[in-house]
C-alpha cells in the first residue's frame, strides 16, 4: 500500500478527521490537498478534543510527517495559531511542511468573501467566511499570492498591488467599502515570512521521494464530493476539488500512485450552509438527529441541517471517486429509533429517479422516497467487532453497503479514536 486517499462522500463533516487520525498510526506522511481553514476536523484522543482547520489530522501522531500541499489555500495567521495551540499541548506541530506553491489567503480575501455573501442576500452560498472562495478565484485568475512570494519582497509588493487594484475599485464603487492598503497587506504578509522559511518545501518532491522509498502517504480530504466545484451541487459548493482526483492535483503525486480511496459516510446526512438537500428533515426528527449527533459546525458553530442516509448521494460519490472502501461513521447516533428510513430514490415532479438527476433544477425539486429499516435500542459505543453490533444494526449496515455498492470496511461507534469497528484492513 502506498497512496491512500480519504474523502467525504456527502456534504462534509462525515468524520474524516477521526478516520485520518486513526490511520495516521500506520502511515508515514499525511497531506492536506485542498480547501483551507473552511474545514473543521475534530479528533478525540484519550478524552482530549482537538479541532483542526489547516493542519492534517494525523499531526497528533508524532511519527507522521504532516504536509500542506500546493492545492491548499493558507491563512498564515490561522496556521500559526493552530501550530501554537498544539505546541502548548505538547504536540510538535511545527514540523509541518508547506508547499512553496500553495496560495495565501489574505485579509482582502476574507473581506470579499463576506461582502459578496452580503450582496447576494437571499441567494447567498452560506460560506464559512474564511476567504477561501476569493483566494481560489485569484489563483485561477492568475493574481494570487503564493507561499514562495513571501521571500521576494519586491515581487510580493508588485503582486499585492496588482491584485488589489481591481478589488479596491470593486470594494469602493460597488460595495461602498473602504479601499485596502496594498502596503499594509504586504507588510503583514512579510511579517509571516521568517517563521515560514523552515517549513517551506517542494512537497511534491518530498512525497514522491517518500513513495519511491516505500513509505505510505495518506491524503486527507477536506469538504466533500457534493461540495466539489465540478461534481457538487453548484453553485452551493466550495471553490476547490475535494474529490479523490483532487489529491493528485493538490499534492503533485500522479494518479498511478493511489492504491485505495476510502469514502467517509455518516450513517445519516448533514449539510451546513445553503443549497439543495432533498432528504432534509425540518421537523422534530431532524432536531433529534442534530442534538443526538451534536451536529454543530466545528468551524462556524452553525447548526447542521440533518436528514436520513441518502443512498443516491453516496452512490454518486462512490462512482466518481472509484471508492474502494467506505468508512461509516456515527452509527451510534442512530441508536434508539424504532425505524430508520433510508433515501433510496427521488420523486422529481412525479417521476422516480434511482440515481441523482442530471440537472440541478430537477435536484432542487427532488423529494425523498424512503425504505424503512428496523432500529435498535442497545448502546453500541463499546462494540469493537461487527458481531458485537445488534442484529438490526448489522442489517442496516449491510443494506447501506448493498445500496452504495462499496464494501464497508470500518464503522464509527463514537468520537474516540478507539471507538471503531474494523471489518476489513484499510492499510
Ligand atoms: P470532518 O470535517 O469530516 O473531519 O468531521 P467533523 O470533525 O467536522 O465532524 C464529525 C464529528 O463527529 C466530530 O465531532 C467527531 O468527533 C465526531 N465523530 C466522528 N466519528 C464519530 C462516530 O463514529 N460517532 C460519534 N458519536 N461521533 C463521531
Ligand atoms: P470539512 O472538511 C461542511 C461549505 C460551507 C458552504 C460552502 C462554501 O469540515 O468537512 P466556503 O467557505 O468553502 O466557500 O463555503 O461549503 N463547507 C463545508 N461544509 N464541512 C466543511 O469542511 C466545509 N467547508 C466548506 O458551509 O456551504
Ligand atoms: Mg468538519
SSE map:
Blueprint: E1 3-8, H1 16-23, E2 29-32, E3 41-45, E4 48-52, E5 65-68, E6 73-74, H2 76-88, E7 97-99, E8 103-104, H3 107-120, H4 132-140, H5 153-173, H6 182-191, H7 193-196, E9 200-201, H8 203-212, E10 217-220, H9 244-249, E11 258-266, E12 268-271, H10 284-293, E13 305-310, H11 311-320, E14 325-329, E15 339-348, E16 351-353, H12 360-365, E17 366-374, H13 391-404, E18 408-412, E19 420-422
Parallel strand pairs: 1-10, 1-11, 2-5, 2-10, 5-7, 6-8, 7-9, 11-14, 13-15, 14-18
Antiparallel strand pairs: 3-4, 12-13, 15-16, 15-17, 18-19
Helix pairs in contact: 3-4, 5-6
Bound molecules: guanosine-5'-diphosphate, 6-O-phosphoryl inosine monophosphate and magnesium ion.
Guanosine-5'-diphosphate is lined by residues 8, 12-18, 40-42, 44, 298, 329-330, 332-333, 412-415.
Strand content: 15-25%
How would you write the strand order of the largest sheet? 9-7-5-2-10-1-11-14-18-19
User: What structural category arises from helix and sheet content?
Assistant: alpha/beta
- Calculate the terminal CA-CA distance, rounded to whole Å: 6 Å
